[in-house]
Automatic annotation (TrEMBL):
EC number: 1.1.1.302
Purpose: Catalyzes an early step in riboflavin biosynthesis, the NADPH-dependent reduction of the ribose side chain of 2,5-diamino-6-ribosylamino-4(3H)-pyrimidinone 5'-phosphate, yielding 2,5-diamino-6-ribitylamino-4(3H)-pyrimidinone 5'-phosphate.
A GO biological process held by the record: riboflavin biosynthetic process
Alphabetical list of PANTHER family matching this protein: 2,5-DIAMINO-6-RIBOSYLAMINO-4(3H)-PYRIMIDINONE 5'-PHOSPHATE REDUCTASE, DIHYDROFOLATE REDUCTASE FAMILY PROTEIN (AFU_ORTHOLOGUE AFUA_8G06820)
Pfam families to which the protein is assigned, alphabetical: RibD_C
Any GO MF annotation of the entry: 5-amino-6-(5-phosphoribosylamino)uracil reductase activity
Domain Bacterial bifunctional deaminase-reductase C-terminal: 6-183
Name the UniProt record assigns to this protein: 2,5-diamino-6-ribosylamino-4(3H)-pyrimidinone 5'-phosphate reductase
Similarity remark: Belongs to the HTP reductase family.
Alphabetical UniProt keywords: Riboflavin biosynthesis
Stretch forming the signal peptide: none
Catalytic activity field: 2,5-diamino-6-(1-D-ribitylamino)pyrimidin-4(3H)-one 5'-phosphate + NADP(+) = 2,5-diamino-6-(1-D-ribosylamino)pyrimidin-4(3H)-one 5'-phosphate + NADPH + H(+); 2,5-diamino-6-(1-D-ribitylamino)pyrimidin-4(3H)-one 5'-phosphate + NAD(+) = 2,5-diamino-6-(1-D-ribosylamino)pyrimidin-4(3H)-one 5'-phosphate + NADH + H(+)
């Protein structure tokens, strides 16, 4: 079975993945019942935007699931490629252009591997990949909070493959309410 590109995120109830202007997530509720080690073990490649990667860099080494992984297994997309390659190039793969082609290539190259690809964020990157028909699953741990301003789960839309008001249909595969108030969901994306 080909690997799935799974967009895993912890949005607010109103669909935001980071507060503005800080681009932080102070409203995320920790839940000790979530087995992150088991979750991380389902993936062999992690893709994300610059801000998401910087969030992981700020974590203590023992809590950062990206530490110690092979350079090619962590792909960070940024517009500031030269500076970021200089800064992070030994630890991760830094990519500036051709996002859709790179992700298509990752999905194709992992066809025999058996593990999925984790899309960690941000919203603009997720939107580009959704419009390209590459996001297979959206797994949202919906936080029981509403914030006023923030980064949308799929950016602002527009561009190639934009579905406008029609959007994309998602099929609910799983939903579980945790005692913390977090709603764990899994949706399969339906493309025409």
């Amino acid at each position: 079975m080909p690997p799935l590109l799974r967009y895993n995120l912890a949005p607010t109830l109103n669909g935001l993945i980071a507060s503005l202007p800080s681009h932080t997530t102070p409203w995320i509720i920790p839940d000790p019942t979530i087995d992150f080690a088991a979750l991380y073990a389902q993936f062999d490649t992690f893709i994300m935007g610059r801000r998401t990667y910087e969030t992981f860099l700020a974590m203590p080494p023992g809590e950062n699931p990206l530490r110690g992984r092979a350079r090619e297994s962590v792909v960070v997309f940024t517009r500031d490629v030269d500076r970021r390659r200089e800064e992070w190039g030994r630890e991760v793969t830094v990519v500036g252009e051709g996002v859709v082609g790179v992700v298509r290539g990752l999905k194709e190259s992992q066809r025999r591997e058996g593990k999925d690809i984790w899309l960690m964020g941000g919203g603009e990157l997720a939107g580009v990949l959704m419009r390209a028909g590459l996001v297979d699953v959206v797994e949202a741990a919906v936080m029981p909070v509403v914030v006023g301003r923030g980064v949308k789960m799929f950016g602002e839309g527009g561009g190639e493959g934009d579905r406008g008001e029609e959007g994309w249909r998602l099929v609910l595969e799983k939903a579980e309410a945790l005692e913390s108030g977090i709603l764990m969901t899994r949706y399969r994306v339906v493309y025409d």
